[in-house]
Design a protein that fits this description.
alpha/beta; 9-stranded mixed sheet; 6-stranded parallel sheet
């Protein structure tokens, strides 16, 4: 095994990727911001090879950087040189003839374009350890019809599953593709859209280039409008953001019919390119005082914000807080006392009362039984 010590910076890495022969460069539908590539910042590492893989060895983890171009299956190791494999790097498996892949439960991040254009890949299981899936990570995998997610929210970046059978099937079931609290895709929605309160995270580019959506209302559970969410939604007229503290780069770029914007009083920052290249003059309702609005970090000479008419509504009331899953006694938290109460209720104890029976419906079949109790126990153990 050969190793070589390196120090690399973000800009140099991106330039190197662009010039590397054999890599398929993506068709860019949106202008991705620099912070979407921040995972690949400077660092000290050595390089190595093991089997069909090349990798980067850091002080505490391994990143898979390359897989043999003829590989038809990949059983990614959980450790190399005694260190956990935690990252699948950019382009690592792109355009491989993979029919199957096994990702170990040590991996926390699947990098940008990692499995793009793997045309024969039919299924993938995202392990419980994964927290983030990068830009176009599985794009143009037309045979990919099964994606198994862990039962927690995963931060999914722009167009991660574009042009896959899996996404197309879900779009037919519901134009709002929601996975464990993440709004993955809304590009086939039409007209007026209300995002359900179960959504906590909106993927970058979720609505991008949707020419049919005219109005969107977000619940207060959504704390950020990420990069490119409404990029080039040229018929979008109104949007209400009830709880967002941050609006990121190009979020509303080229939305030239956007005339009604309602913003949360919790807002602290608007990226300088959030409302880029909009010609419309809007009425902006801010759910807070003028003094609070003036404290929001923003580009003071931004044309869209500068030309808007402002309404300051200090009496706006946010959506009521959601019920806490498992909190059957409604004390504001889910703990052992809820499980004890639910178990007593199932046993028919006349002194047991479920103040919120829906909080115990973990199976989501509107029927309470021992299967819900088992699921509650597993969830509490996982959180402990």
């Amino acid at each position: 095994m050969k190793t070589k010590k390196m120090v690399i910076r973000t800009a140099a890495l991106l330039a190197a990727i662009t010039l590397t022969s054999g890599a398929i460069l993506p068709v860019q539908n949106c202008n991705y911001s620099a912070n979407q590539f921040s995972a690949y910042a400077e660092g000290n590492y050595t390089t190595g090879e093991e089997g069909i893989y090349k990798y980067l060895k850091y002080s505490d983890h391994i990143e898979i950087s390359f897989c043999n171009t003829s590989a038809t299956s990949a059983d990614i190791p959980s450790t190399i040189e005694g260190l956990p494999v935690t990252v699948i790097g950019m382009y690592a498996f792109q355009n491989r003839p993979l029919k199957s892949v096994t990702i170990p439960d040590t991996v926390t991040e699947i990098g940008h374009y990692a499995f793009g254009y793997c045309s024969e890949l039919k299924s993938v299981t995202i392990p419980d350890s994964v927290q983030k899936i990068g830009i176009r990570a599985f794009e143009s995998c037309p045979a990919l019809e099964e994606v198994n997610f862990p039962d927690h929210l995963v931060e999914i970046q722009s167009n991660a599953f574009e042009n896959t059978a899996w996404l197309k099937a879900l779009q037919k079931e519901d134009p709002l593709v929601i996975i464990n609290g993440a709004l993955v895709d809304a590009q086939t929605t039409k007209g007026k859209v209300v995002i359900p309160s179960s959504v906590k995270y909106v993927c970058p580019s979720a609505f991008a280039r949707n020419l049919d959506v005219t109005s969107v209302v977000f619940p207060s559970s959504v704390s950020a409008i990420n990069d490119n969410v409404f990029f080039y939604c040229s018929n979008l007229e109104s949007v209400e953001v009830k709880g967002a503290t941050f609006i990121d780069s190009m979020a509303f770029a080229y939305c030239n019919k956007l005339t009604d914007v309602k913003l949360s009083g919790k807002l602290t920052k608007i990226d300088e390119r959030a409302f880029s290249d909009i010609t419309a003059r809007a009425t902006i309702t801010f759910y807070g005082s003028k003094e609070t609005w003036n404290k929001v970090e923003k580009k003071e000479d931004d044309p869209f914000l500068k030309n808007a008419t402002y309404i300051f509504d200090e009496n706006h009331i946010d959506d009521p807080e959601e019920d806490i899953e498992g909190d059957v006694n409604m004390d504001g938290k889910f703990n052992v006392s809820d499980i004890v109460l639910f178990q007593q209720w199932l046993l028919g104890n006349p002194d047991s009362e479920l103040k919120n029976w829906k909080a115990a419906d973990f199976i989501k079949d509107e029927h309470l039984d021992h299967f819900d109790l088992i699921a509650m126990r597993k969830e509490l153990i996982k959180r402990s």
